[in-house]
């Protein structure tokens, strides 16, 4: 009798570096070119692939050239449709390990045994842009995780923001059409700063809360390792006794929540459009693995009365003050894909890939997704057998009577392709005991109608809560983002509607800060379409909504620029380099030319970037070592000073040892239009200057952990309200 092996859940914890079950399952599909000879797709050896078969040296090519035809035909069909949303993405393999058995909440197999590492594949993405668009678009980020569990695949298909634009999936085509490039001109690429998006926002005020997240710094993350993830909808956890509780899923990054500033984002997009993809790839190659803790907010039916919002409404979050997030396990991303197309492009996530112990709710956004994710792959991956693509296969056997269709490559033996059958011995038989998936037997009923509950109509309270929970710096950035986005909207009536019907209902200070800049000099709060009365959220602010609440436990994965010229103090660079590498930070030596740069006392450093190929926006911090000749040369050329001024303007940590301090002081004095010795104290915040290298690395890494020093700019300081 076929039975599903449970052996893998009894295995001891695997050593890092030992292939996990998914890695091992992918192995038979890998093809390695080393030591091979070129063949056709039929395995026929090919001695020459530079010239087509021709009738005479200068004659026409021949149709019988099967190698030419195969090569060109395959090339002609290399592209598949890109995802209709989330087209641009980057993936990584890793594993998930639970901290303690969660049997009281759920019977999900992968949440029981802390000794088991469940393989995962994660795909991060932007939403609006095409496959080739840039990474630092102001956008939502997708954060989709496929857990290859011993009970089948579980997909947690989330975003880096905890709420969504709309409440019902039937409006998804509308919101996506509105935000994507405009229908007539296909402009702008990967940007929400245009008329159709803001037209939709003004007329569909349920978007208010998510729009605020989109305008916040969350929309321009420093890296995929420094953003949170959210399952968004309310799901259910079900234990072995059949008891169901509600749950919101979270990913908490151990590297903290960090973003870039908008000026950097626009520059990075030109300088390195693959910034996030590269950072993910390079961090993994360097062993600075991105890590996230899985967080659960678990609550029961009995808690619902105390919530001033409807848990089925995906435009609402459950504040962590109402239900704390329990951190129950850790995910580590430790292996880059072997092949982008085979893995990252062909991976197919589906919110309906559920395992026993996890179930869905009646959230009407979620319900539509249950249809969409299977449906979309039929076109994108060319038929119904995409689950057989290696990256999508579960690590457990698949047996059923589904058959045929494009690209079906399982060869099922026997005649009995139906159930019930006797001639196949009744196989595959039904699961018995607790192993099979059983839906929560929730009682449902009611009149059939296109209807929205009143409990969904409070569009603004949580948008206000979000805004009021931000630090002044974050509020300021949000107001600036709105000034930029609405400033790009051509139609004044759209700007007016957004300012008066949306922003004014969220926060009058915000509306007054934005309105006059975008051609709405007098803000008049007006009711928004279909909006119900605001509901008291019970809290004035939620600390967890500010990025400052999670600075992180590690700085691994960060990049530091080291500016040198011939004659630099090599021992200083060596000491700093060692300390940074020990902290998982990558130092990158930048000079005016590539290759080995000689130090003052015989040492050398390899410059892998020049001032022509690297800008300060690509780095988290800058370090300038001493060495009189090096400092003099860097000062003589404008590039190093410009590099430092820009890093400083973006509030980044700057470090200097011995003579390096002169260069930093000169740059800051230029920026402040002051004498090098009279630069204001707050301007020096996060500028770590040391006479010698002793003790410097510790102070510098501490500064890197702060990420940004907003206090440098008096107008960015905390406290007070948004500047008009
Ligand atoms: Fe998606 N979404 N979505 N979405 N979504 C897709 O599926 C859809 C929604 C999310 O890296 C598509 O395979 C509908 C919320 C991610 O491959 C498509 C609705 C959240 C990804 C689709 C939503 C997401 C997708 C396009 C409203 C956060 C990328 C390609 C009812 C919780 C997955 C594909 C990857 C992708 C439909 C709303 C996250 C068309 C109809 C809410 C991370 O099926």
3D architecture notes:
The protein has 724 residues and is an alpha/beta fold. It folds into three domains: 53-392, Catalase core domain (Catalase HpII,  Chain A, domain 1, Beta Barrel), CATH 2.40.180.10; 456-549, Catalase, four-helical domain (Hemocyanin, N-terminal domain); 559-706, 3-Layer(aba) Sandwich (Rossmann fold). Helix content is 26%, strand content 15%. The chain is built from 18 helices and 18 strands. It has helices at residues 21-26, 66-76, 172-179, 195-203, 208-215, 262-271, 275-285, 340-345, 364-380, 461-469, 472-487, 492-506, 508-514, 570-582, 628-636, 638-649, 660-672, 696-706; strands spanning 89-98, 118-126, 141-149, 152-159, 229-230, 235-238, 244-253, 291-299, 326-335, 358-359, 559-563, 586-591, 595-598, 604-607, 609-610, 621-624, 654-657, 687-690. Strands 1, 2, 3, 4, 5, 6, 7, 8, 9 and 10 form a ten-stranded antiparallel sheet that branches. Strand 3 and strand 4 (152-159) form a beta hairpin. Helix 5 runs parallel beside helix 10 and helix 16 (638-649) crosses helix 17 (660-672). The protein is globular and about 90 Å long. Bound molecules: CIS-heme D hydroxychlorin gamma-spirolactone 17R, 18S. The site of CIS-heme D hydroxychlorin gamma-spirolactone 17R, 18S has 25 residues, from strand 2, strand 3, strand 4 and helix 9. CIS-heme D hydroxychlorin gamma-spirolactone 17R, 18S (HDE) is lined by residues 83-86, 89, 123, 125, 142, 144, 157-159, 164, 169, 172, 232, 314, 348-349, 365, 368-369, 372-373, 376.
């Amino acid at each position: 009798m076929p039975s599903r092996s449970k052996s893998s859940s009894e295995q001891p914890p695997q050593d890092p570096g030992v292939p996990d079950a998914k890695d091992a399952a992918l192995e038979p599909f890998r093809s390695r070119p080393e030591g091979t000879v070129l063949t056709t797709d039929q395995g026929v050896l090919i001695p020459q692939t530079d010239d087509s078969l021709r009738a005479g040296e200068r004659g026409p090519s021949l149709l019988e050239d099967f190698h030419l035809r195969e090569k060109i035909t395959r090339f002609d069909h290399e592209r598949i449709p890109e995802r209709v949303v989330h087209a641009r993405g980057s993936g990584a393999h890793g594993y998930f390990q639970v901290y303690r058995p969660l049997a009281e909440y759920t019977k999900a197999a992968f949440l029981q045994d802390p000794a088991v590492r469940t393989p995962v594949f994660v795909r991060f993405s932007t939403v609006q842009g095409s496959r080739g668009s840039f990474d630092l678009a102001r956008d939502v980020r997708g954060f989709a995780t496929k857990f290859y569990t011993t009970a089948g695949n579980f997909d947690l298909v989330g975003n880096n923001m905890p709420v969504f634009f709309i409440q019902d999936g039937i409006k998804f085509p509308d919101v996506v059409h509105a935000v994507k490039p405009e229908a007539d001109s296909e402009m702008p690429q990967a940007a929400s700063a245009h008329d159709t998006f803001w037209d939709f926002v003004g007329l569909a005020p349920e978007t208010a809360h998510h729009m605020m997240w989109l305008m916040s710094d969350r929309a321009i993350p420093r890296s995929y390792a420094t953003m949170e993830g959210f399952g968004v909808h309310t799901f259910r956890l079900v234990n072995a006794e059949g008891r169901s509780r509600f749950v919101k899923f979270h990913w908490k990054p151990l590297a903290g929540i960090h973003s870039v500033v908008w000026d950097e984002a626009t520059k990075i997009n030109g300088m390195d459009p693959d910034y996030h993809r590269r950072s993910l790839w390079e961090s993994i190659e360097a062993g600075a693995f991105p890590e996230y803790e899985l967080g659960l907010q678990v609550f029961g039916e009995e808690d619902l009365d105390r919530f001033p919002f409807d848990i089925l409404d995906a435009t609402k979050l459950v504040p962590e003050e109402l239900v704390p997030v329990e951190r129950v396990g850790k995910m580590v991303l430790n292996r880059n894909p072997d092949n982008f197309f085979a893995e990252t492009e062909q991976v197919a996530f589906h919110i309906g890939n559920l395992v026993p112990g996890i179930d869905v709710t009646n959230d009407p956004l979620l319900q539509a997704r249950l249809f969409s994710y299977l449906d979309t792959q039929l076109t994108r991956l060319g038929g119904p057998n995409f689950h057989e693509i290696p990256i999508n296969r579960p690590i457990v056997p698949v047996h059923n009577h589904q058959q045929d269709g494009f690209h079906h490559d399982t060869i099922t033996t026997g005649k009995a392709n139906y159930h019930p059958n006797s001639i196949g011995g009744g196989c595959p038989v039904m699961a018995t005991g607790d192993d099979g998936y059983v839906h929560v037997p929730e009682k449902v009923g009611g009149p059939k109608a296109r209807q929205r509950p009143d409990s969904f109509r409070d569009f603004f309270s949580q948008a206000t809560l979000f805004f009021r929970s931000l630090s002044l710096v974050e509020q300021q950035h949000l107001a600036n983002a709105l000034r930029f986005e609405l400033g790009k909207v051509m139609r004044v009536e759209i700007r007016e509607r957004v300012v008066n019907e949306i922003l004014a209902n969220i926060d009058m200070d915000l509306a007054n800060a934005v309105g006059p800049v975008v051609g709405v000099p007098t803000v008049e709060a007006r009711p928004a379409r279909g909006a119900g009365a605001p509901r008291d959220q019970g809290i004035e602010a939620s600390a967890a909504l500010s990025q400052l609440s999670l600075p992180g436990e590690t700085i691994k994965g960060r990049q530091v620029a080291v500016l040198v010229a011939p004659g630099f103090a090599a021992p200083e660079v060596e000491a700093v380099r060692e300390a940074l590498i020990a902290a998982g930070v990558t130092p990158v030596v930048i000079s005016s030319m590539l290759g080995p740069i000689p130090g003052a006392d015989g040492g050398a450093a390899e410059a892998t970037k020049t001032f022509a190929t690297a800008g300060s926006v690509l780095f988290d911090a800058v370090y300038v070592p001493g060495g009189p000749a090096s400092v003099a040369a860097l000062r003589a050329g404008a590039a190093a000073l410009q590099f430092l001024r820009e890093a400083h303007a973006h509030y980044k940590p700057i470090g200097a040892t011995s003579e390096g301090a002169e260069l930093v002081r000169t740059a800051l004095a230029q920026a402040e239009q002051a004498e090098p010795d009279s630069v204001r104290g707050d301007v020096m915040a996060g500028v770590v200057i040391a006479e010698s290298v002793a003790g410097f690395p510790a102070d510098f890494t501490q500064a890197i952990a702060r990420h940004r020093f907003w206090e440098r700019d008096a107008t960015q300081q905390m406290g007070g309200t948004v500047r008009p």
